[in-house]
Amino acid sequence: MSYFFYENIMDHYKNPRNKGKLDFYDSEYGDSNPTCGDSVKIYLKVNGNKIEKISFEGSGCALSIASSSILTEMVKGTNLDDALNLSEKDIMNELGIKELGPNRIKCVALPVKVLKMAILSYKAKQL
Ligand code: FES
Predict the structure, then answer these.
(1) CB within 10 Å: which end of the chain, N or C, has fewer?
(2) How far, rounded to the nearest angstrom, does the alpha carbon of residue 116 sit from its chain's CA centroid?
(3) How far does the centroid of ligand 1 lie from the alpha carbon of residue 95, in Å?
(4) Phi and psi of 28, rounded to 5°?
């Protein structure tokens, strides 16, 4: 494990950005990883087609919390369709991770999936 990888994950794990429930939000979605029970919930405040505010709550391993934290930083201010294109690889790149085994990729995939479901749920309400 590289020093950068470890430090970056531990920074976001110990000082998660955008953690907590938004006072006012347009969409929320939560889910858990069935293999370990760790959970993530994401709140979105949307303005036009952009994510104006985003926050998360959750309990889980360092990698899932760090991924949730960095994900919120990456998509804040972006439009909904760009955020829908976010992948696990994008999060890994931002955290400085080159490769993950199948058990650990699930820790990154959970917040990505929850974000996408929160966006799709918001879009469904606009129809
Ligand atoms: Fe549960 Fe990482 S071990 S999400």
Answers:
(1) C
(2) 9
(3) 16
(4) -145, 150
Question: How far is the centre of ligand 1, averaged over its atoms, from the C-alpha of 32 (Å)?
Answer: 9
Residue 107's pLDDT is what? 96
What burial class does residue 109 get, using C-beta atoms within 10 Å of its C-beta: 0-12 exposed, 13-18 middle, 19+ buried?
Answer: middle
User: Quick check: 14 pLDDT over 60?
Assistant: yes
Closest residue by Cα to atom 2, ligand 1, is 107
How many CA atoms lie within 13 Å of 6's alpha carbon, on the beta-carbon side?
Answer: 3
Residue with tokens 């606009």: 126
Position in ligand 1 atom list of the atom nearest CA 104: 2
Structural fold of domain 3-126 = Sufe protein. Chain: A (3.90.1010)
How many angstroms is it from 47 CA to the middle of ligand 1?
A: 32
pTM of the model: 0.95
Give, using CA atoms, the residue closest to atom 4 of ligand 1. Answer: 107
* pLDDT tens digits along 21-71: 999 999 999 999 999 999 999 999 999 999 999 999 999 999 999 999 999
CB atoms within 10 A of CB 88: 19
